[in-house]
Amino acid sequence: MGEHDQLFKNLVGIVGSKYVSDDDFILLSYTKDVGTFEGRPQGFVVRPEKTEEVVEIVRLANYTRTPVMPLGGKCSVLGVPPGQPGRGIVVDMRRMCKMIDIDEENMTVTAECGITLGEMASKVNEKGYDIHTANMPHFNATLGGHTSSVPNAGYGAWGASVGWNYHYVLGFKVVLPDGTILETGAGPGSQSGVDYTVARGFEGPDTTGLFIGDGGTFGIKTEATYRMFRLPKFKKGGARAFDTIDQAYKAYHKLHEIDTYLYMQPWAAGMIFDPETITFATMGMTEPTWHICWVNVGNSEEEVDFKNKQTDKICEEGGGRPGTPAANEFMDSYFRMARDMGRMATFGNYTSSCFEYGVDRRHLLEAFKWEIEFANKGIERYGIDKSKIRMTKAFLASATGYGMTSIILYFDPCDAETSQKVHALNLEAMKESMARGYIQIASMGYGGPLKAKYWSPQLYHYLLTLKRTLDPNNIMNPGIFFP
Amino acid sequence: MTKIEKYKESVYACARCGTCRSKYDYFDHVARVCPVGEHSPGFEPYFSRGRVAVAQEILEGRTKYSPALAEVLTWCTTCKNCEEKCGATDATGDSKIKTTKITEAMRADIVDLGMAPEAYKRISSRIEKDRNPYSEPKEERAKWAKKLGVPNKADIMYFVGCTSAYRRPEIAKATAKILKAAGVKFGITSDEWCCGSPLFRTGFEKLAEDMAKHNVEVFKGAKTLVTACAGCAKTIINDYPKIVGDLPFQVMHISEFLETLKDEGKLKLKKPIKKKVTYHDPCHMGRELGLYEPPRNVLTAIPGIELNEMVQNRTNAWCCGGGGGFKISNPEAAVEIAGDRLKHAKEVGAKAIVSTCPFCKTNILDAIKAKGSNLEFYDLTELIAKSMGL
């Protein structure tokens, strides 16, 4: 029996024949994510049902020196992990999708990492809670995939006031590259005498953090515990129009001057939209000028009204004119729309997340202006037919320092020529942005090695040492950051 | 040229967002999307996104049709829910990605290559030989109507369909009795052949065309064709015109026809039926033909009936698991999917499920038996006939 057949037989022994495949058409169906990057088929796909099966797969991978690539919702945009074409084992985690516990006393929720963010949120919503996860892609991304591939576990709906989701991820159950099960956060695996995960970092060094945004290269996450918060009972949106981006940003910056750790932010969420985007998004019912759109939440109408007036006043003092009713309501509908964006693909056009970067507050405006200019020049340079694309532009700060710029080009996926040109422009933009110090959001596919290229030599050495120590055979999702 | 090439543009319209394999709250209603995928081994090609990805790989020559792929392609009921939820829509709001047609085209390619799964071959050879998928004698097609004295020619013809004729005669009898009692002059013919639905859905296009041509010829002269089968209605309305052009008659599902009779005061629903029921939308009638309200309007006209909607209803209805050749190729999984529907019905306190498709009835009854459920199942015509005292 050859190496491949033996491995197949062993994998069948772990998960059963129904959940292992080496059919070429199945392997091929795992080579592309949502983006324009092409991947190559691996050797096997397996679908484990429990942590113990993941352990066995990882042990087998070590024994046979076969790379394993954990896979979530296939929602990344920078390509699937390289693995080892023809030989690697794709570990499709979506059978592990159970809710494990909703602890209302400690306000925590634990679920298997193959659950989608949307399903996890809907389960806690039923009990009157919510969780801070990515707003988009909400319905298809898995908990494991999202926390692995997006730094700080993503930016959620209320990021403007609560920051990135990092603080709300309390712990993981991770299968390390040698098959050891590690539980992070103060919980059963790390803290004797505690039988559930309730806190982050109380065990000593923050071990949870190592596995956030790690691209799944330090282990396969099988369970995660998140902090829940009560669903607000009331919400109200608002908007102000500004003549210039500088005027809008000045007011926006003012809104962020209130210290989030001591006082409540006046708003729950808000961002700046460019003239074209706000007009398009409100179906032509808003004048094409720069807009700050926000939404406030609270437990009473009075509270929400108070916050709304406060936000509006700051924007008015910054020179903002009253928003149209459509713009006032936009932010609330925006979240639903954005959550659904993956599905909508904006009325039949494919999204290419061309320029989406984490940028600190000091450089946010400068970065956004540069990116608009770069995108426009790039469109000219590559001869991209403007009638075949749509570009939306928005940017936002967060309560915790880093903000995000987002310029998205939409185009018809059937249009191969435009697709290729946008892909090339995307690559160029990623390199230029990283060189300027703007952080590439995704750690997957092409994003990981690019990100690692801009680490300091000390950080690179530190993380490589960790990787080599934890994964001496380099079987755990190789090629994410290191060759 | 392969059949899939016809759908090349549709195949490449897929942005791989994965909504077709999701399970989530979408706005204010639950939108679980793929019943088959959820009961399958779950690899990508068991859902639309993966099937479309494989179609792309075939079009680009990186893989070929194979018996293994043929088997995976049986895992679809063609319920069209993925298309319904797909966001890649054209100006009319329809999905650009014709996932159902893509699946049927891939199955047709499989048939052309001689790789059709045994279960499919068995059905097609039965239909070829006996003109019905049950291998029943042709002369017994109208056996159920022997004592009813129905003529074989009339302006309004009742297209009975194979399942009602041979397996669910109670539906055929109820339909005929209602029409008679309402004073409708209608006919049936034993020259009727299988509508071709199982053939269209599983890729036997040539044989399906023969069925279509024959049936159109046989019923030519009628003004209206009425059928109590969702699958027959969808096939005749949506598939036949692509073969024969404009149909020489109007086609109505019985629920539409009954709604008209009700509005004209011809349905005498005298006897109350005190029952908490729920209505199951057959995929071929709902998402394919957009017929959601007529059956509900007729059902709720019965005195005593309390209709409790399942959470997944109308455009968002969960398939029973019986259609698209799925019950033929994957009978156990089909019953498991119908089992989901029993849970949905129980959740809303229904004592009975009502539907308008003989094949949904067969599959849901199989699930009731397999699960030991105390739920009842009725075709709409059965309840109407009962209320009319027939």
Number of helices, counting only DSSP H or I runs of 4 residues or more of chain B: 18
Would you tell me the overall average pLDDT of chain B? 96
N-end to C-end Cα span of chain B: 54 Å
Helix content of chain A: 25-40%
Tell the overall outline of chain B: globular
What is the total tally of β strands of chain A? 18
Q: C-alpha Rg of chain A, in Å?
A: 23 Å
Class per helix and strand makeup of chain A: alpha+beta
Largest sheet of chain A: 8 strands, antiparallel
Largest interface: A-B, 44 and 38 residues
Report the β-strand fraction of chain A as a percent range: 15-25%
Mean pLDDT across residues of chain A: 88
Helix content of chain B: 40-55%
Poorly predicted runs of 5 or more residues of chain A? 344-348
Topology:
The complex is a heterodimer of chains A (483) and B (390).
Chain A: H1 3-15, E1 20-21, H2 24-28, E2 44-46, H3 51-64, E3 68-71, E4 89-92, E5 99-103, E6 108-112, H4 117-125, E7 129-131, H5 143-149, H6 159-162, E8 169-175, E9 181-183, H7 207-210, E10 220-230, E11 234-242, H8 245-255, E12 269-273, H9 275-281, E13 290-298, H10 301-317, E14 321-322, H11 325-339, H12 341-348, E15 350-360, H13 364-381, E16 389-396, E17 402-411, H14 416-435, E18 439-440, H15 447-453, H16 457-470
Parallel strand pairs in A: 2-4, 3-4
Antiparallel strand pairs in A: 1-2, 5-6, 6-10, 7-10, 8-9, 8-10, 11-13, 11-14, 12-13, 12-16, 15-17, 15-18, 16-17
Chain B: H1 8-12, E1 23-26, E2 29-32, H2 35-38, H3 48-59, H4 67-73, H5 81-85, H6 99-112, H7 118-130, E3 156-159, H8 162-166, H9 169-181, E4 186-187, H10 197-202, H11 205-219, E5 224-227, H12 230-244, E6 250-253, H13 254-263, E7 275-279, H14 293-299, E8 305-307, H15 326-329, H16 331-347, E9 352-355, H17 358-371, E10 376-379, H18 380-387
